[in-house]
Amino acid sequence: MASSLSTAAVSSRIFAASSSSAARLSLLRSPPSLSFSYSLKSLSFSSHFSAPQRRSSVNVWSSGRFSTVSSPRCAASDPSQLKSAREDIKEILKSKFCHPILVRLGWHDAGTYNKNIEAWPQRGGANGSLRFEVELKHAANAGLVNALNLIQPIKDKYSGVTYADLFQLASATAIEEAGGPKIPMKYGRVDVSAPNECPEEGRLPAAGPPSPADHLREVFYRMGLNDKEIVALSGAHTLGRSRPERSGWGKPETKYTKDGPGAPGGQSWTVQWLKFDNSYFKDIKAKRDEDLLVLPTDAVLFEDPSFKVYAEKYAEDQETFFKDYAEAHAKLSNLGAKFGPPEVCL
């Protein structure tokens, strides 16, 4: 569901619309319980969580090459480090204007989830596998190496935070810092430890499938998401731009993107493509500006009878959109995740 989210159209903003490959929605979508792990609101833990974490060395992509770093294994992320990492992410957002691609990073890590596969990590989802080159090279993830290079220094600084948590933390923080709703996030996700644990290519949505509505449902129903959540997550395309060199969609530049901020170029879904609001739905409905991008998976939200109910509502009522979006984003962020330990004493 992104230049911001997807290189597809559901990270379309969800779907994919992130700052790099907005043509595939990647995103975003059955609902693991939110009762395990912890949130950043309540970070007073019992002393047994301060014990050293067992770690394993894994290869991760960093600055265009692989480097070996220590990754926490089978233990929740350190709560104090999560809080500090969030502040560092906010500073990056202020200087790099990278909100869309960080949203897309979290969505594409989570959006590979298959509710029909019980075993972890074969089921995919939010497990940090997107840090491995084999998955970064999937077509839907074009350009996301740039997001990983932004995040890697934070990971190096806070080794007690898993990649799986960091990707989701960055995504939720980017939404909130762009003016979007507070996402009710939980943390404590376990990382996969090797490239052979990455999901196969093809689980993320495409931007221009022959039957957009059927395609969105096929992809997001597989994740356990419903029509309302598909439409809400698509609204994240209010952020970001699609770049034709990455996704095959969009113009090289428009009057809204030629001067940045950040790297100039691409085609945005909205005029203020670093502001999270409901303008994505308003602009698609109005069809008034050829410089604004509308992918087949965007247009279908106002064409399919079931999708249209929610798209019309969100175009008129930003408060309802924010509420539904926050719930869907939180659900997406937990797809396929394994939390360790499964319960935390607060």
From TrEMBL:
<feature type="compositionally biased region" description="Basic and acidic residues">
    <location>
        <begin position="242"/>
        <end position="258"/>
    </location>
</feature>
<dbReference type="InterPro" id="IPR002207">
    <property type="entry name" value="Peroxidase_I"/>
</dbReference>
<dbReference type="InterPro" id="IPR019793">
    <property type="entry name" value="Peroxidases_heam-ligand_BS"/>
</dbReference>
<keyword id="KW-0150">Chloroplast</keyword>
<dbReference type="GO" id="GO:0034599">
    <property type="term" value="P:cellular response to oxidative stress"/>
</dbReference>
<comment type="similarity">
    <text>Belongs to the peroxidase family. Ascorbate peroxidase subfamily.</text>
</comment>
<keyword id="KW-0408">Iron</keyword>
<dbReference type="GO" id="GO:0000302">
    <property type="term" value="P:response to reactive oxygen species"/>
</dbReference>
<feature type="domain" description="Plant heme peroxidase family profile">
    <location>
        <begin position="102"/>
        <end position="340"/>
    </location>
</feature>
<keyword id="KW-0934">Plastid</keyword>
<dbReference type="Pfam" id="PF00141">
    <property type="entry name" value="peroxidase"/>
</dbReference>
<dbReference type="InterPro" id="IPR002016">
    <property type="entry name" value="Haem_peroxidase"/>
</dbReference>
<protein>
    <recommendedName>
        <fullName>L-ascorbate peroxidase</fullName>
        <ecNumber>1.11.1.11</ecNumber>
    </recommendedName>
</protein>
<dbReference type="InterPro" id="IPR010255">
    <property type="entry name" value="Haem_peroxidase_sf"/>
</dbReference>
<feature type="region of interest" description="Disordered">
    <location>
        <begin position="237"/>
        <end position="264"/>
    </location>
</feature>
<dbReference type="GO" id="GO:0009507">
    <property type="term" value="C:chloroplast"/>
</dbReference>
<keyword id="KW-0630">Potassium</keyword>
<keyword id="KW-0349">Heme</keyword>
<dbReference type="GO" id="GO:0046872">
    <property type="term" value="F:metal ion binding"/>
</dbReference>
<dbReference type="GO" id="GO:0020037">
    <property type="term" value="F:heme binding"/>
</dbReference>
<keyword id="KW-0560">Oxidoreductase</keyword>
<keyword id="KW-0376">Hydrogen peroxide</keyword>
<keyword id="KW-0479">Metal-binding</keyword>
<dbReference type="GO" id="GO:0016688">
    <property type="term" value="F:L-ascorbate peroxidase activity"/>
</dbReference>
<dbReference type="GO" id="GO:0042744">
    <property type="term" value="P:hydrogen peroxide catabolic process"/>
</dbReference>
<dbReference type="InterPro" id="IPR044831">
    <property type="entry name" value="Ccp1-like"/>
</dbReference>
<keyword id="KW-0106">Calcium</keyword>
<keyword id="KW-0809">Transit peptide</keyword>
<keyword id="KW-0575">Peroxidase</keyword>
<comment type="function">
    <text>Plays a key role in hydrogen peroxide removal.</text>
</comment>
